[in-house]
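Hello,

I think I submitted the adenosine-5'-triphosphate job twice by accident. Can you confirm which output corresponds to this input? Input:
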Amino acid sequence: MTDRIVLFGGTFDPVHNGHLIVARSIAEQLELPKVMLVPAAVPPHKDSAHATAQQRLQMLRLGIAGEKLFEICELEISRAGPSYTLETVRQLRRLRGGGVDVSVIIGADMLEDLPIWRRVDELLDEAQIIVALRPPWDRQLEQVLGSLEGPLGRQRAQTLSKGVVTTPLIDISSTEIRRRAREGKSIRFLVPEAVEEFIKNQRVYVG
Ligand code: ATP
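Support: Only one job matched these inputs. Its output is below.
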């Protein structure tokens, strides 16, 4: 049987229940035994992270503690420089040996950015992209997929549309959590309890 690795990369600043609910839903639907969460060291398509890499890693660990579905891949955190998915895919392939299928989960909001991902053509040749729904982007999905035909080509855009999985629409973002924490508002039910405690005790997003 071919080995399959499913990556879910992100800044996880912090990890939130949207990430976890959506990843679990995908795992259930596609019958995946594992989803590898890959925190980025330096996210290439975003402003820099707010919490430190070690804090983001620690929050991920706390958030998935005791949950067998998830494992954390520290390759990007350990690597110097921007965290390009293609490099991570190749590094994992080298580590696992040949014959491994790699899939990468992204939220629907990331689709329109795909054309500017580093060497995206090679990434799309080497990994299958699984797209999770995310509000409000779910409402423009057809339009965004259509707009990818120009930069990526029709066939690739069609393959991407086949990778869309109907996941629960969870309107939670790390931005909202950081803002709420900064303003002293509750973040309960938005993040796992242990992550909430960590953010409070370490004053991660205050000041
Ligand atoms: P920020 O608000 O700081 O931009 P974020 O909430 O988008 O962060 P990331 O860690 O940047 O979180 O996201 C990692 C991956 O998870 C991305 O592919 C993103 O699209 C996806 N994702 C994040 N939140 C959700 C959500 N609520 N539903 C579906 N996908 C999500």
